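To assess whether ligand presence alters the predicted conformation, the chain was also submitted together with A1CAB. Input:
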Amino acid sequence: MLNNQKILFIGAGPMSEAIISGIIQSSVIPAQQIYVQNRSNTARLKELQKKYQIHVYNEKDVHLTEFNIIVLAVQPKNIEEIINQLKNTIHTNQLILSIITSMNIDYFEERLMKQPIIRVMPNTSSMVCESATAMAVGKYTNNHHIEMSKMIFRSIGEVYTIAEKHMDIFTGIAGSGPAYFYALMEQMESVAIEGGLPKQQVRSIVAQTILGAARMVLGNNGSPETLRKNVAAPNGPTEAGLVALESFGGLKAIKEAVKNTTKRSIEINEEIEKSYI
Ligand SMILES: NC(=O)C1=CN([C@@H]2O[C@H](COP(=O)(O)OP(=O)(O)OC[C@H]3O[C@@H](n4cnc5c(N)ncnc54)[C@H](O)[C@@H]3O)[C@@H](O)[C@H]2O)C=CC1
Ligand SMILES: O=C(O)[C@@H]1CCC=N1
């Protein structure tokens, strides 16, 4: 289905790279059909070209009508210039996949006439084909568009089709989630080194521990609650650790992190909508 499709990424940041790396590893779209446009950073474009053997463009050289699929991968603050670039140029037979955080499908549909648009929230684990990706579809999409989008994002992990109103909480959990785990890993690495474990082993020990816990849950070996209880014998070392986690606010902090991310995601859309009134 994607054999003859040409795909353009607008924005050459880490998220575009993570997706490109994933789709090349999974051979869902060949490298020679992948194009990336960035604003001015020629060195970054050269780096991506060399690493993945894809085509790269500076903004002014792109002919947007050549592409079947256009992935928008810039920050929300750059959205207006992207709309200006697309408006009056693209056709309704081109599929837009927006991974831009916070920006609602309505925003695009109001500015681009009858354009098929799918809003997607992947995460950086796309790089190793382990993303948890959400997809919400616009009103001008058809089954073919939805299937193409699923194929692309399934090549880089799991895809969940959700209602668009849940995109912000999904961002709080899965889009931003890797950052919470990295923050946790930083703390665990630091205390492991302080406790005398050899530095060269610590990174692997911590990462393997998180990977194993995730695999236990995904392998249906029990709910997180049951699995937690299995680790913590009454009055054992784990129980002491969990008591500290709770008493230092660790559990509440996790919930607050998700809530704050969700709130900020909603705010960004509101701020940008307001700035154009
Ligand atoms: N990094 C992450 O974990 C995730 C990011 N996202 C979202 O994906 C989008 C991209 O994320 P990153 O790659 O992290 O962002 P980034 O800010 O690192 O990269 C975006 C790139 O787009 C370029 N750019 C800006 N305006 C442009 C224009 N008009 N034409 C061409 N290039 C332009 C910038 O120079 C920059 O190199 C953002 O909206 C972000 O919120 C979504 C899911 C996860
Ligand atoms: O925080 C950000 O800017 C984006 C949202 C999801 C991951 N990164």
